[in-house]
Write a structure and sequence with these properties.
Layout (H helix, E strand, L loop, with lengths): L5 H18 L1 H19 L1 H7 L7 H6 L3 H12 L5 H7 L10 H10 L3 E6 L2 E6 L20 H10 L9
Antiparallel strand pairs: 1-2
């Protein structure tokens, strides 16, 4: 087994750090971002801990994060019918959006061209501009997954029936 001293590890780290810093603009940007985050955390450490949110997300978190409007669109497409703002607020986080206030979500939806506020079932609801109310939702086929029981019955009911021929 090879023994590695702390000094050796520090030396290797410093060499790699120097090479990456000289060669990669992305690495220099990463270092600048880390320094900025450390200075912000040092300036107001209570705000970071009081919010209960990590000040940094992983690159994967940032890549898959969606806006409230995108999440609301996913909710409406999945539900297939107009929904009031209070129901959307509850479901948006489940579809990848950040939880927010009623006013924030309402503002986002009213500014996005893909949404329209309509009166549905005696309530003000949000709906998708390009779809009519009651339009069937086309679900993409998922390989390897059997349809749910209710979908199987719908498929059976839609299938043309074969009539037995008399001989």
């Amino acid at each position: 087994m090879v023994e590695t001293s702390l000094e050796t590890l520090k030396s290797l780290w410093e060499d790699l750090h120097t090479r990456l810093k000289a060669q990669s603009a992305d690495y220099r940007t990463l270092l600048a971002l880390e320094a900025a985050m450390r200075s912000m955390e040092a300036a107001d450490p209570q705000a970071v801990h009081a919010a209960g949110v990590s000040p940094r997300g992983s690159a994967l978190d940032l890549a898959v994060r969606v806006t409230q409007a995108e999440a609301a669109q996913r909710v409406l497409e999945a539900r297939g019918e107009p929904m009031p703002i209070d129901e959307l607020i509850r479901l948006v986080p489940a579809f990848g959006g950040r939880p927010g206030t009623r006013a924030s979500l309402s503002s986002s939806l009213s500014q996005a061209p893909q949404f329209v506020s309509i009166r549905h079932a005696n309530r003000w609801c949000w709906w998708l501009t390009e779809r009519t109310v009651g339009e069937p939702v086309e679900e993409p086929a998922r390989p390897g997954r059997a349809p749910s029981r209710s979908n199987r019955w719908r498929q059976i009911a839609r299938a043309p029936r074969k009539r037995a021929q008399k001989v």
